[in-house]
Amino acid sequence: MNKSHFIMLASVVIILLTACAPSQDSIQTAVAETQAEWTDVPTQTPYATYTLVPAIEVTKLVIVTATFTNTPEFTPTITNTPSKTPTSTQTPNVAKTATAQAFAKLTSNKSPGVYLVKVDIAPGVWRSQGKGDNCYWQRSTKTGDIIANYFGMAGGTIYIAPTDFSVLLDKDCEIWGYLSPP
Question: Which residue in 33, 113, 114, 122 has a CA-CA distance of 20 to 30 Å to 78?
Answer without folding.
Answer: 122
